[in-house]
Each structure stands twice: as structure tokens, then as C-alpha cells.
Design a protein that fits this description.
Radius of gyration: 25 Å
Helix content: 55-70%
Strand order of the largest sheet: 8-5-11-10
Organism: Olea europaea subsp. europaea
Strand content: 5-15%
Number of helices: 35
Low-confidence stretches: 214-220
GO biological process, one term: proteasome-mediated ubiquitin-dependent protein catabolic process
Shape: globular
Family: Belongs to the proteasome subunit S2 family.
Largest sheet: 4 strands, mixed
Protein name: 26S proteasome non-ATPase regulatory subunit 2 homolog A
Pfam families: PC_rep, RPN1_C, RPN1_RPN2_N
Structural class: alpha+beta
Mean pLDDT: 91
């Protein structure tokens, strides 16, 4: 060990940090590292540590990140330390970062990072002694700044003009035959238009169908669009108003209010869901969503109950709010409640307690699963119960084992399905190779009809492998094999898995695979492929995918179900007019937002049985995507949090871990002035010396302070 100490000291002095780290990992004494790092090499050392953690078996990975956290804290590189604390999901560490730092501006930057990660976090006296300062910080954590920042971006890029579904479909570019599609049922088309309109104008606060300017109010055309939808379609239409006013709680609740006085149960259900959507990702100390929705949970009508329950799940995702648990868990044991109410309750509880491993909730969902009758176990909705259970353990690895043992005692109809769902959720985002092999093994079996557990296993491959680029590429190749050799039920899930792997990141090879599958003989495969084309292009305005979808809309003009899927995908590609992303990863693909992943996984599980859920009367599960919607922007603000325009270079990020010297971190850059949009794999750096960013990662809201050493060259 004496020799090791000398070798490490030598390596650290001579810019060979990776060798030093490797040696210390081999002799299992990483703690030595903290003494040897200095101001010159701590950044490179920690970069190597955090990058290698993805490839280490547990529990070594956590140990390595602990050391990186200690080094960052030692050199007061607080934003990086905070990111590691969030990666480890260690709230003690998060607290430590706040207590160790005395600069209010830096604390504001930490709050922006917490808000982007989407966790509910309460600041206390230790973290910020001053009451007024603490209120300002708590407001940032509560994400109240998101809406105005997003609208500032939209004004800057000049896309405030509302778009109608026709602007998206661009039917005039097609040959004549599709536009006159007389065979198409108009309610289904209007429902599709409702979703397209909601996705495209999400968060802009104005559109051409639901929010109509005041002078037209005498004609009341917003109610008239609502009634162009049939029955349960009205629920999605009313809820779409919440999507258009996304993140703007005050005006959202004011505009949804009119629907609460409706006599139509579907409209009320939609309004309740709309309240949940408006509040999604925004916290508020007065809890408006809980106050509004709580009274409707125990109503007679199951539509209204589902609206309120799903609304609570969206509004309080990840908050682990005790009041919601005490209100929702009794429904799971209620013998009178219909299956759909129970299924949505389980999902909402899973969302509110995502990744918490909460035993009471787990217990309640397990009992609800055991109470199901033989006939109910075959229903697609019952599978949402096991999904709700899985969400409780999202990313928590071996903590799922006790519950997984219990699931082996379930009825054999659901046993394996539940087991796959639990495992895939527990290891989501970990990159655990052994689990990927386990899922591939499950998919290799050729079974009789009626087995459903292979769907979640295929999704499991994507959920586990999405953690890092290398595993992701390998998973795409493995899924290609499943397409060639797998049975039908596996082929139906493969497009969805591809959609999750490349979400909001349209890779050409995946785009081509999905394009091929969108003409598949099996309609379920085609539908999944079309929805996935929407997912991989979500919020990118990708012209090639938009073109493919237009062609598909004329190809399937006679088939209402497939056309509906094409429309939804078209809405997704133009999500937020190209300003939003669905990618759950952020901070240079280091952190995974648990609520965002939960929303995506919920939608994908619903897509495993398209006909029953999305094409049936549960199309509003599409709104679970709102959990993953985030502006893909870099917004620079000054010390008073007012937008500040500075030049930045935006280019493809280059992985510089372990490289000698000071290599460039981005390539092929263009210089823009902020606010700017960041695509998948993009990185930004300031193109001016005049300001210093308070966060090393330029994404989302970044506070700039003036550089005291800056001199204007005359």
C-alpha cells in the first residue's frame, strides 16, 4: 500500500488521473484519492469517476460517486456535487450542498437544478436562514418560473401564433385521394384533432379550438368544439384546455372553471383531469389541485372518479404526499369500485410515490391484485395495477426483491407479467447488463397465444439499457433480432421499446426500422410503430418524420384506427411547436427524472394493448406524457432572474473523458444569442468572457453573474 500511495501521487501530478483511479479501484481503496486531488486536476478526476460509474457493478458504482461527491464538495464545485446527490437520490447530500454554500445566487441556481429534476423539495431553516430569501428559493424549486421562461423563449423564436391541426396535417401536400376520406368517422377524427391541438399548442396559453379570444365569446365557439366530440371524447377535449395552459396555474384554473358547472359527466371528468395537467410539475403551497379534486374522488360516476384520480396523480407525481395516500388507498380495497377506477388509482399512487418503495402503498396494490376475479385478470386494465406497483420501485434495484417474491404467489394469469413489470421498473436507467440478458431470455421463449408478459420484458430491455449510449446502441441491435425471430406479441412491443430508447432523438436507423414496421401486415405492430415515430420525433419538428407521417395518413385514409395513430404521432412530432422534449434525461444525459420516466412508461404499457385502451375509451392515457414534457431550452438570466441575452455556441457534445490537455467539448458549433433550443446530444458554452455561469452545465435556466476580471478591449 505504501507503493500504491507513491504511484498514485506520481500519476496525479502527471495528468494521468484515470490510471490513478483505476489502480485505487483495483486495490479497493478509493478514499486515498481525496488527499491527492488538487485544484488543477479535480475536474478531470471527477469526470472520469462519474463516467466510469455507469459501467461498474453495484455497489462499486455508488462508492465511486460518493468519492466524486466528496471531491466536488472539497473544492466547492457545488452544482456538480448537487447533481451527484440527485443521481444517488440522497437527500442528505442535497441538504449538505445547501448548508455548505452561503451565496444566495448559487443557491438559486441549485433550486433551478432541483426544479428541472422534478422532485418535491422543502427548504428548511438550516439550508437558508433568511425567511425572505427562502421564499424566493422555494418559489424556484416549485417551478413557478417555468411558464414565463417558456413563453419568453416562444416570443424570442417568434412562434406564439396558435396553430390549428390542419396546419400540422398539411393535407394540401398530398394527392387528392386522402383529403376526401368520406369513410372516416368524424368523431374519431375530431378526437385526434383535439389531441394534436393540445400537443402542438401545449403551454402557449392560446389556440384556435379551445381558447377563443373574448370578442368571439358571444358565439361561444370553444364550447362548440367541445361538443364536436362524442361521449368520452368530451373528457379529452375538456382536459386539452389544461394542456394548452400548461404550467400556468392561475389562468388555467380560471379557464377550466366553466366546465365544472356542466351537466355532462364527461366534461366534468375532463375538467378534473385538466386541473391535474395544468399543475403538472408545478408545486404550490396552497395545493389548489388537491382542494379542487378531493371532493370528486368518491363520486358515484366512474368517469368523474377517474378524472379526479388521474388528475391528482399528474399534479402530485413524485411528491409522496400523505393526504393523497390516505384518500386514494381506500379505493383500492373498495368492492363497489369498477376495475378501471381501481387501475387508475394504482397508477396514480405509483406516480405520487414513484421510486419511494413505500410499503403501505405497495401493500394496498398487492391486495387489490389478489382480489381480482379470474375474468378480470385477463383484462388489459388489470396490468396497470402491476405497473402502479412497479413505479413504486422505479430505479431502486434490489429494494424490489421482497415485493417480487410476493408477486410469485399471484394467480398464474398475471404472475409473470407482474414479475417482468416489477423488474423492468426497478432496474430502469441502471444499464444493468445481467437484467438485459434476463429480459432477452424471457423473450426467447416461443409461447402459446394469450401470454402477455413478453411485452413488459421487451420494454424492460429498453428501460434498463437507456442509461448510456453504448448499451443503447447494443439494445437497438438486439431488438432487431427480436423482430426477426420473435412471436407476434413480442413484435408488437419492439417498436415501443425503440421509441423509448430514442425518445425525442430521431436516429436515422431507428427511424427507418419504424418506417418499415409502420406498413406491417399486423395492424398492432403498425400502430405501435406509428406512435413510436411520434415519440422519437417528439418536439423536434423533424421534417423527414413529418413527411413519413403525411404519407402514412394517405396510405391509411380508410382505416380509422391507424389514421388516429398517425394523427397522434403528427401532434407529437410538433410538440409545443418544436420547443418541448420528452426525453427523461437531462444535465448532459447524466440525470434521469423519475417522474418523466414514469409518465413515459405508463403510456408505453398502455400502448401494449392499443385497441383496448388508446383506441377504446381510455384515450386520455395519452396525457400521461405531460409528466415528461420539458422545454428543451437554455435560458440565461441575470442576478435578478430577468432574461439576459448573451451569445452562446451550440454544437454536438464531445466526450472528453480521459483525454490529454484541454480538448474542445463541442464540435460543429453555431453561435446564437440566448434563449436557444438544444437538440438531443447538444451542448452549449458561453461565447463571451463578460459573464460567468453559476452552473457548469448550460441547460434550462442558468444564472449568469458579471465577470469581475473582464476588460472591454478598446
Amino acid at each position: 500500500m505504501v507503493l500504491v500511495g507513491q504511484i498514485v501521487a506520481f500519476h496525479m501530478k502527471h495528468n494521468a488521473e484515470p490510471e490513478a483511479v483505476d489502480l485505487l479501484m483495483e486495490v479497493e481503496d478509493l478514499d486515498l484519492l481525496v488527499e491527492h486531488v488538487d485544484n488543477a486536476n479535480y475536474k478531470r478526476t471527477c469526470l472520469y469517476l462519474t463516467s466510469s460509474a455507469k459501467y461498474l457493478p453495484g455497489p462499486d458504482d455508488l462508492l465511486v460517486l460518493d468519492i466524486a461527491y466528496a471531491i466536488y464538495m472539497k473544492f466547492e464545485e457545488f452544482p456538480r456535487a448537487l447533481q451527484i446527490a440527485l443521481y444517488l437520490d440522497n437527500m442528505q447530500y442535497v441538504k449538505q450542498v445547501f448548508t455548505s454554500c452561503n451565496d444566495l445566487q448559487k443557491k438559486q441556481q441549485f433550486c433551478f437544478i432541483l426544479a428541472r429534476h422534478g422532485i418535491t423539495f422543502k427548504l428548511d431553516n438550516e439550508m437558508c436562514p433568511e425567511d425572505e430569501e427562502r421564499e424566493v428559493l422555494q418559489e424556484i424549486v416549485n417551478n413557478t418560473k417555468l411558464n414565463e421562461g417558456y413563453l419568453t423563449l416562444a416570443r424570442d423564436i417568434e412562434v406564439m401564433e396558435p396553430k390549428s391541426p390542419e396546419d400540422i396535417y398539411k393535407a394540401h401536400l398530398l394527392d387528392g385521394r386522402s383529403s376526401g376520406g368520406g369513410s372516416v368517422d368524424s368523431a374519431r377524427q375530431n378526437l385526434a384533432a383535439t389531441f394534436v391541438n393540445a400537443f402542438v399548442n401545449a403551454g402557449f396559453g392560446q389556440d384556435k379550438l379551445m381558447t377563443v379570444p373574448l370578442e368571439a365569446s358571444s358565439g361561444g365557439s370553444s364550447t362548440s368544439w367541445l361538443f364536436k366530440n362524442k361521449d368520452h371524447g368530451k373528457a379529452s377535449a375538456a382536459a386539452s384546455l389544461g394542456m394548452i395552459l400548461l404550467w400556468d396555474v392561475d389562468s388555467g384554473l380560471a379557464q377550466l372553471d366553466k366546465y365544472f358547472h356542466s351537466t355532462d359527466t364527461h366534461v366534468i371528468a375532463g375538467a378534473l383531469l385538466g386541473v391535474g395537467i395544468v399543475n403538472c410539475g408545478i408545486k404550490n403551497e396552497y395545493d389548489p389541485a388537491l382542494a379542487l379534486l378531493a371532493d370528486y374522488i368518491d363520486k358515484e360516476d366512474s368517469y368523474i372518479r377517474i378524472g379526479a384520480i388521474m388528475g391528482l396523480g399528474l399534479a402530485y407525481a413524485g411528491s409522496q404526499n400523505e393526504q393523497i395516500r390516505s384518500k386514494l388507498t381506500p379505493i383500492l380495497g373498495d368492492a363497489k369500485a369498477s376495475l378501471d377506477v381501481i387501475a387508475f388509482t394504482a397508477v396514480s399512487l405509483g406516480l405520487v410515490y414513484v421510486g419511494s418503495c413505500n410499503e403501505e402503498v405497495a401493500q394496498a396494490i398487492i391486495f387489490a391484485l389478489m382480489d381480482r376475479s379470474e375474468s378480470e385478470l385477463g383484462e388489459p386494465l388489470t396490468r396497470l395495477l402491476s405497473l402502479g406497483l412497479g413505479l413504486l420501485y422505479l430505479g431502486k434495484q434490489e429494494n424490489v426483491e421482497a415485493t417480487a417474491e410476493v408477486s410469485k404467489t399471484f394467480n398464474e394469469k398475471i404472475r409473470k407479467h407482474c414479475d417482468m413489470t416489477l423488474l423492468s421498473c426497478a432496474y430502469a436507467g441502471t444499464g444493468n447488463v445481467l437484467k438485459v440478458q434476463h429480459f432477452l431470455g424471457q423473450c426467447a421463449q416461443h409461447l402459446e397465444k394469450g401470454e402477455t408478459y413478453q411485452g413488459p420484458a421487451v420494454l424492460g430491455i429498453a428501460m434498463v439499457a437507456m442509461a448510456e449510449e453504448l448499451g443503447l446502441e447494443m439494445a437497438i441491435r438486439s431488438l432487431e433480432h427480436l423482430l426477426q425471430y420473435g412471436e407476434q406479441n413480442i413484435r408488437r412491443a419492439v417498436p415501443l421499446a425503440l421509441g423509448l430508447l430514442c425518445i425525442s432523438n430521431p436516429k436515422v436507423n431507428v427511424m427507418d426500422t419504424l418506417s418499415r414496421l409502420s406498413h406491417d401486415a399486423d395492424t398492432e405492430v403498425a400502430m405501435a410503430a406509428i406512435i413510436s415515430l411520434g415519440l422519437i420525433g417528439a418536439g423536434t419538428n423533424n421534417a423527414r418524420i413529418a413527411g413519413m407521417l403525411r404519407n402514412l395518413s394517405s396510405y391509411y385514409y380508410k382505416d380509422a384506427s391507424l389514421l388516429f395513430c398517425v394523427r397522434i404521432a403528427q401532434g407529437l412530432v410538433h410538440l409545443g411547436k418544436g420547443l418541448l422534449t420528452l426525453a427523461p434525461y437531462h444535465s448532459e444525459r447524466f440525470l434521469l427524472s423519475p417522474t418523466a420516466l414514469a409518465g413515459l412508461v405508463t403510456l408505453l404499457h398502455a400502448c401494449l394493448d392499443m385497441k383496448a385502451l388508446i383506441l377504446g375509451k381510455y384515450h386520455y392515457v395519452l396525457y400521461f406524457l405531460v409528466l415528461a414534457m420539458q422545454p428543451r431550452m437554455l435560458m440565461t438570466v441575470d442576478e435578478n432572474l430577468k432574461p439576459l441575452s448573451v451569445p452562446v455556441r451550440v454544437g454536438q457534445a464531445v466526450d472528453v473523458v480521459g483525454q490529454a490537455g484541454r480538448p474542445k467539448t463541442i464540435t460543429g458549433f453555431q453561435t446564437h444569442s440566448t434563449p436557444v433550443l438544444l437538440s438531443a446530444g447538444d451542448r452549449a458554452e458561453l461565447a463571451t468572457e463578460k459573464y460567468v455561469p453559476l452552473s457548469p452545465i448550460l441547460e434550462g435556466f442558468v444564472i449568469l453573474k458579471e465577470n469581475p476580471e473582464f476588460r472591454e478591449d478598446n
